[in-house]
Write a structure and sequence with these properties.
Blueprint lengths: L2 E5 L4 H12 L3 E6 L6 H9 L7 E5 L5 H10 L2 E4 L6 H6 L1 H22 L7 E7 L11 E4 L2 E4 L16 H21 L2 E7 L1 E3 L11 H11 L3 E4 L5 E6 H12 L2 H4 L3 E4 L6 E3 H12 L5 E4 L8 E2 L4 H7 L7 H14 L1 H8 L4
Parallel strand pairs: 1-2, 1-4, 2-3, 4-5, 5-8, 8-12, 9-11, 10-14, 11-15
Antiparallel strand pairs: 6-7, 11-13
Helix pairs in contact: 1-2, 1-8, 3-5, 5-6, 7-10, 7-12, 10-12
């Protein structure tokens, strides 16, 4: 029986991954400090899974090497999804951001390196971010039919795009990104980086600073006012959570292929959506217009980001399956069915 360790396993991405691999018959250990609002709710969802004999929860922090390293040594595969996830939070407290994202990842990697033996070299997947590419100010952006797009990147941003860390968050995630990649080259570990774009889906308690698509959807269901920073024509490629988890599984199944590799992971050009497009779809689902106001652009906000996912398709045989329209409807229906829980979670947001 394969054994998966998920750091940050009570978060949105980690929770879905843990649930998926329990469904697949794996033993799953979730390691989480439960600091993020809503993580206790996700943990209860995981604890309701029928396979409780294969599920184990450990409360701890990736900044504590002595806590996380023994768990890494016991796992056949590691999904490192723990992290500080908001740019704005990193600006307010850059030290905390660094210690969670950079030092925390280093601790996981060191746990892996020190436990390596001929019969133990698990795949480690790191959930990085497209923010490592920075503002991409030198990339041509055009406006077509009220949508921003790239002038010369028809398939989106490839993994060869130069790195340019902006914000403390970009620096901490970017540092961790490069450590993960280099530990494959220097120490022969099966470490892999997924630079993720807009990931969304059920069990996502999105806020204004992180998880914008879920944040918009929650506002639509709960009839809350919504602020758009900029003109609303910003475009992102949206990847539904089950498609991301399918990519995780493909990577775990091909350790020799993914070792030392970086994959841009998003919806690609065919699953791109503007903020205004999303509001239009939510208005249709609601049956009435949302309460929307506009404010100035926020520093560093990209007018467009679309990931080129051809490498994942070519090397892993992976292709996204869920359309944005279907994914948004799934999320909308889940929020509507769980509005009391979501309202309760929101009351705890500072």
């Amino acid at each position: 029986m394969k054994h998966l360790l998920v750091t940050g396993g009570a978060g949105f991405i980690g929770g879905h991954a843990a649930h998926h691999f329990l469904d697949r018959g794996w033993k799953v250990t979730v390691f989480d400090n439960l600091a993020r609002i809503g993580s206790d709710v996700t943990l209860e969802w995981l604890r309701s899974h029928p396979a409780q004999d294969r599920f184990h929860f450990v409360q701890g922090d990736v900044r504590d090497f002595d806590a996380v390293a023994p768990l890494v040594a016991q796992a056949d595969a590691v999904l490192h999804a723990a992290g500080q996830t908001a740019v704005t939070t990193s600006v307010v407290d850059p030290r905390d951001d660094f210690e969670i994202n950079a030092l925390g990842t280093f601790n996981v990697l060191e746990g892996l390196r020190l436990s390596k033996r001929p019969d133990h070299n698990p795949v480690l997947l790191y959930t990085s971010t497209n923010k490592v590419y920075g503002g991409m100010e030198d990339t041509g952006v055009v406006l077509r039919d009220n949508h921003y797009g790239y002038a010369d990147l028809p398939h989106g941003v490839p993994e060869s795009q130069p790195l340019d860390f902006h914000s403390p968050y970009g620096c901490s995630k970017g540092s961790a990104d490069q450590y993960v990649r280099d530990y494959a080259r220097i120490y022969g570990l099966n470490t892999t980086v997924f630079r993720q774009s807009c990931i969304y889906g059920t069990w996502q308690f999105g806020t204004e600073d992180q998880g914008w698509l879920a944040h918009f959807t929650i506002a639509a269901v709960l009839d809350l006012p919504l602020t758009i920073y900029g003109d609303g024509m910003q475009v992102r490629d949206a990847l539904y959570i089950t498609d991301l988890v399918a990519a995780f599984e493909a990577a775990f199944d091909h350790p020799q292929i993914v070792a030392g590799q970086v994959f841009n992971m998003g919806g690609g050009p065919h699953r791109s959506i503007s903020l205004l497009d999303l509001i239009d779809q939510l208005n249709t689902l609601r049956g009435r217009p949302m309460q929307v106001r506009y404010a100035d652009w926020r520093p560093g906000d990209q007018r467009v980001f679309i990931a080129d996912t051809r490498k994942a398709h070519q090397q892993l045989g992976w292709t996204a399956q869920v359309s944005v329209q279907d994914g948004v409807r799934r999320l909308y229906d889940w929020v509507a069915a769980n509005r009391d829980t979501i309202t309760s979670v929101r009351t705890r947001v500072k």
